[in-house]
């Protein structure tokens, strides 16, 4: 064992090297913690969060054409689309739309399947509810989105 | 339904589409007038010849009825009694020293219900081969633990999921499901919504939601 | 001859139960001890069995893709890659070059993320509490890239059969390059913390030795096999998704002990950065989705495709019967097969070594149990 190795062992050089790394990270500029819920994380644009039924901004009607493609694409079969045929325009119109967020795995297959971009997974991730039934969203909740109570520090 | 995989010696001629075993899965061109050729009801395999098949044919004359290739992957179908000797020959003489996987496929309408598949790999040749045997329900194949140690847990899992018991296995019991579970889930007659309600009621004291 | 009382019994059977901070999931290990020395173990698994293979038989090919992410939930992108490659092979199609390059970038980022989590939790089990915070900080950057690309951090569902769903986002290449430049000094930092540290070396050297022959017998693959000295990596031996274009080294170890597995995985992270840099520099333009039929109904047949996942050889054996749902999907889980070798590796060690060895095998119970 060479003399330098001997001194490194006695004077715990390897341990102090590690401690120096730790000590350097105590610098307040290196703090990485996000103080949620005071500062909310900014999620990506493509984030797969809460589903939303989009509304046409011009006339306020829903964009959904009740084609049922999202229900067919869903691996968990949790979308139920109700529609009725409008005799004047001879098209299907959306009546009810049920989406079970408790079983949803946010895979995005329904969003990919929608031909008119009516169903979209938004950036909302705060979907908690107090009851099991509260997780089954109907059309109104889907159009408005979840309204979590804001936290007051 | 394609659950008959008949061992064909000479492969049936591949359907129109050129390459072996790959019929066109979508319309060839909008202007094609001919109707889509129906995909074959059995796997469209081509025969496989190599030094491996030569050696095995010499050793196990008649016990290996089929050597085939599908999509570039070689496999052979052996008689169930010849399984462990074939695995030993492949390991000791042909360098297939690594057992990748053991699994089974259930074809309930066939008299030989299960297709037991052993996937082997050779480091020296950088090649994979599959050994398949067709066994009826209740048949107990010999264990491969004596040849490859990997087979221990893999055979336990096949037993757990399919109910195929291996003769000579040191520890033949369920591995993923609880010991007292009744039923073998990956069989086709075990519905996906089914559970061993008695076990769940007794051990978890709930009425299962399914 | 005096009757043996239970105080004379030398063998103590204790349970390292499913709820344990060091078993990396719900793994139960029943240890037979002679004092502190381990003379036998028995693993009880199945606490996380969700029947993924049975689900595979009841979903269409595209619908099954989100489920495979949940097996190895630490490195979800490689699971998706293996499955998409297997179904593409059944359909006999290939993803276009741009899709393959992006797949390689995401898979290597996923390898870095998986090894970072491994390093953090392994060090935590051994007792070094600091690396876990640093590793998760780096992992956060990788997960940000995943989130920007496909919308989810952990269960990404990034790839589709035939290519990719999403085009790379604005700033993808820049963010990836910045990550690579930022990350390499961090690996040096971990090495400074651990590699020469006498406590680390003392806990890991000559612990859990698995020689190359034993590895091959037990079918163990991945960094465990490479630490035993076998230079074998599926990315070089049977390249897939364009890996043959990239230059990278395969790190190997000498003794097959826990310390070698640590060095192999650290070097693998560096090589992954090397691959990512090459792929980002050469990212080809072009379509991202191949010619895939709208309704996927492969011809009758079966195929086995495997990839080099961060944990070992992850294989998919897909049997098709020409319907929209697979007839059988079998997943060859590397963690399940590596865990079998636990019994051989802990013989003669101490209880503290059991924790080190479970950590070094890098198992994820989601994959072990499926």
Topology:
The complex is a heterotrimer of chains A (153), B (210) and C (370).
Chain A: H1 3-10, H2 13-24, E1 51-53, H3 69-73, E2 79-86, E3 91-100, H4 109-113, E4 119-121, E5 136-137, H5 139-144
Antiparallel strand pairs in A: 1-4, 2-3, 3-5
Chain B: E1 46-47, H1 51-59, E2 66-70, E3 73-78, H2 83-92, E4 98-106, E5 114-122, E6 127-135, H3 151-162, H4 197-204
Chain C: E1 12-16, E2 28-34, E3 37-44, H1 52-56, H2 61-69, H3 76-91, H4 97-126, H5 130-150, E4 159-160, E5 163-164, H6 172-194, H7 198-204, H8 212-218, H9 223-227, H10 234-237, H11 258-281, E6 301-309, E7 312-320, E8 328-332, H12 334-340, H13 342-346, H14 351-361, H15 365-369
Antiparallel strand pairs in C: 1-2, 2-3, 4-5, 6-7, 7-8
Helix pairs in contact in C: 2-3, 3-4, 4-5, 4-11, 4-14, 5-6, 6-11
Please provide a written account of the structure.
The complex is a heterotrimer of chains A (153), B (210) and C (370). With 153 residues, chain A is an alpha+beta fold. Chain A has 5 helices and 5 strands. Chain A has a 3-stranded antiparallel beta sheet. Chain A is elongated. The N terminus of chain B is likely disordered. The relative contact order of chain B is 0.11. In chain B, strands 1-2-3-6-5-4 form a 6-stranded mixed beta sheet. Chain B has 2 domains: 131 residues, NADH:ubiquinone oxidoreductase Nqo5 subunit (Beta Polymerase, domain 2); 34 residues, no CATH class. By secondary structure, chain B is α+β, with helices and mostly antiparallel strands. Chain C is α+β, with helices and mostly antiparallel strands. Chain C has a single domain, classed as Orthogonal Bundle (Cytochrome-c3 Hydrogenase, chain B). Chain C is built from 15 helices and 8 strands. In chain C, helix 2 runs antiparallel to helix 3, helix 3 runs antiparallel to helix 4 and helix 4 packs antiparallel against helix 11. The longest helix of chain C is centred in the N-terminal third of the chain and has 30 residues. In chain C, 56% of the residues are buried. The mean pLDDT of chain C is 89. Classes of the chains: A alpha+beta (153), B alpha+beta (210), C alpha+beta (370). Chains B and C meet through strand 4 and helix 3 of B and helix 1, helix 3, helix 8, strand 6 and strand 7 of C.
């Amino acid at each position: 064992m060479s003399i330098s190795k001997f001194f490194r062992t006695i004077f715990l050089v390897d341990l102090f090297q590690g401690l120096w790394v730790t000590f350097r990270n105590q610098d307040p500029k290196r703090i990485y913690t996000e103080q949620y819920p005071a500062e909310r994380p900014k999620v990506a644009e493509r984030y797969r969060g809460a589903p939303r039924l989009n509304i046409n901004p011009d006339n306020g009607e829903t964009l959904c054409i009740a084609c049922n493609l999202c229900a067919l694409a869903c691996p968990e079969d949790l979308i139920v689309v109700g529609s009725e045929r409008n005799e004047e325009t001879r098209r299907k119109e959306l009546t009810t739309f049920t989406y079970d967020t408790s079983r949803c795995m946010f895979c995005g297959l329904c969003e990919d399947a929608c031909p008119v971009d009516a169903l979209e997974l938004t950036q909302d991730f705060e979907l908690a509810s107090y009851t099991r039934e509260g997780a089954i969203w109907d059309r109104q909740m889907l159009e408005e989105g979840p309204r979590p109570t804001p936290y007051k520090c | 339904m394609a659950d008959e995989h008949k061992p064909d010696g000479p492969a049936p001629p591949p359907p129109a589409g050129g390459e072996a075993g790959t019929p066109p899965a979508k319309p060839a061109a909008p202007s094609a007038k001919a109707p889509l050729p129906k995909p074959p009801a059995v796997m469209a395999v081509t025969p496989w010849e190599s030094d491996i098949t030569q050696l095995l044919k010499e050793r196990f004359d008649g016990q290996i009825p089929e050597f085939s290739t599908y999509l570039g992957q070689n496999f052979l179908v052996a008689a169930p009694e010849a399984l462990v000797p074939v695995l030993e020959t492949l390991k000791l003489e042909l360098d297939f020293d690594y057992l990748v996987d053991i699994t089974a496929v259930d074809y309930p309408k066939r008299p030989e219900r299960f297709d037991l598949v052993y996937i082997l790999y050779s480091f020296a040749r950088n090649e994979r081969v599959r050994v398949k045997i067709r066994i009826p329900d209740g048949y107990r194949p010999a264990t491969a633990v004596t040849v490859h140690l990997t087979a221990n847990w893999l055979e336990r899992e096949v037993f757990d999921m399919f109910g195929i018991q291996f003769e000579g296995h040191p520890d033949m019991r369920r591995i993923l499901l609880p010991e007292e579970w009744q039923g073998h889930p990956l069989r086709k007659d075990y519905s996906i919504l089914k559970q061993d309600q008695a076990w769940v009621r007794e051990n978890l004291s709930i009425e299962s939601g399914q | 001859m005096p009757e043996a009382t239970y105080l004379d019994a030398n063998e103590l059977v204790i349970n390292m139960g499913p709820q344990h901070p060091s078993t990396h999931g719900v793994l139960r290990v029943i240890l037979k001890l002679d004092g502190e020395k381990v003379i036998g173990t028995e693993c009880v698994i199945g606490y996380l069995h969700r029947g993924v293979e049975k689900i595979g038989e009841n979903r269409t090919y595209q619908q099954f893709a989100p489920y495979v992410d949940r097996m190895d939930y630490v490195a979800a992108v490689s699971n998706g890659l293996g499955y998409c490659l297997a179904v593409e092979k059944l359909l006999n199609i290939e993803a276009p070059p741009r899709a393959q390059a992006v797949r390689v970038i995401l898979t290597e980022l996923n390898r870095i993320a998986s090894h970072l989590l491994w390093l953090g939790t392994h060090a935590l089990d051994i007792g070094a509490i600091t690396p876990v915070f640093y590793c998760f900080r780096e992992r956060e950057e990788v997960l940000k890239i995943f989130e920007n690309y496909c919308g989810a951090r952990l269960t990404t569902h990034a790839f589709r059969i035939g290519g990719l769903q999403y085009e790379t986002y604005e700033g993808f290449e820049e963010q990836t390059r910045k990550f690579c430049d930022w990350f390499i000094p961090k690996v040096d930092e971990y090495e400074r913390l651990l590699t020469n540290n006498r406590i680390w070396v003392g806990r890991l050297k000559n612990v859990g030795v698995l020689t190359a022959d034993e590895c091959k017998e037990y079918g163990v693959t991945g960094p465990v096999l490479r630490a035993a000295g076998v230079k074998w990596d599926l990315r070089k031996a049977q390249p897939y998704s364009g890996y043959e274009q990239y230059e990278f080294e395969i790190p190997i170890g000498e003794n097959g002990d826990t310390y070698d597995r640590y060095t192999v995985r650290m070097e693998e992270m560096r090589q992954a950065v090397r691959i990512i840099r090459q792929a980002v520099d050469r990212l080809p333009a072009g379509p991202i989705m191949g010619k895939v039929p709208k309704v996927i109904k492969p011809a009758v047949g079966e195929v086995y495709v495997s990839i080099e996942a961060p944990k070992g050889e992850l294989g998919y054996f897909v049997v098709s019967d020409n319907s929209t749902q697979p007839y059988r999907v079998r997943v060859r889980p590397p963690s399940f097969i590596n865990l079998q070798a636990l019994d051989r590796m802990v013989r003669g060690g101490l209880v503290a070594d059991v924790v080190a060895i479970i950590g070094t095998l890098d198992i994820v119970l989601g994959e072990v149990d499926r």
